[in-house]
Amino acid sequence: MKLIEPITILGKVIDGKPTMNNKPWFLSRFEGLDNCNIRWIVEKERKPRSRKLENYYYGHVLPLGSQNLGYSPEDLHDVFKALFLKRTKLWRGIEMVTIISTKKLSQDEYSDFVDKTRGELSSLGIITQDPDKYYKERHEFGDTAISEYVHRGR
Questions:
Q1: Is the pLDDT of residue 147 over 50?
Q2: What is the pLDDT of residues 102-113, one digit of tens each?
Q3: Distant-in-sequence, close-in-space partners of 118: CB < 8 Å, separation ≥ 6
Q4: 89 has which bridge partners?
Q5: For residue 117, what is the enclosing H or E element?
Q6: What is the per-residue pLDDT for 148?
Q7: How does pLDDT run across 40-95, given as a tens digit for each residue?
């Protein structure tokens, strides 16, 4: 048998010991895989990002900043990533600066990123609406406030 797609299974670590959901199914995936090397990758499961927070960022924060600063929402997003998502890595003895994609951020990290962008805009005199108030108004008026940028799937 040939392994065509990676095997993914969820589980928990309790008291330092891993357990997996549906262990019989997981073990059955290895039937017929004799004498081959495999790679184990264990990752901490991340909460999915809030679609509402993405709508708020792309539908309110970026357009408001864009209108006031004269940058496109896409350029402003790049500026915010460069300001708040820089990481330094060592490559062959040289420090390299990289910028993390917002797609790789957890819910908490993304929320922190949006808060920092709001703070930056505030320091420039551009006050963004509170997210909860923004959600409430959009719900009351039936406006989903999803920008074209979000619909394009970035």
A1: no
A2: 988 888 899 999
A3: 61, 128
A4: 96
A5: helix 107-123
A6: 38
A7: 888 777 666 678 888 899 999 999 999 999 999 999 999 999 999 999 999 999 99
Which of helix, strand or coil describes residue 151? helix
How far is 96 from 89, CA to CA, in rounded Å? Answer: 5
CA distance 137 to 51: 16
DSSP per-residue letters across 21-85: TTHHHHHHTTTT--S-----------PPPPHHHHHHIIIIIHHHHHHHH---HHHHHHHHHHHHS
Of 56, 58, 83, the residue nearest 73 (C-alpha): 58
Q: CB neighbours of 133 closer than 8 A, spacing ≥ 6?
A: none
**Whole-Å CA distances, 129 to 24, 38, 61, 125:** 50, 50, 8, 13
**CB-neighbour burial class of residue 121 (10 A; exposed 0-12, middle 13-18, buried 19+):** buried
- Specify the DSSP class assigned to residue 127: P
| Cα angle, residue 26 at apex, residues 17 and 44 outer, rounded to 5° | 45
Question: Do residues 73 and 63 make contact, with C-beta atoms less than 8 angstroms apart?
Answer: yes
Pairing of strands 11-14, 17-20: antiparallel
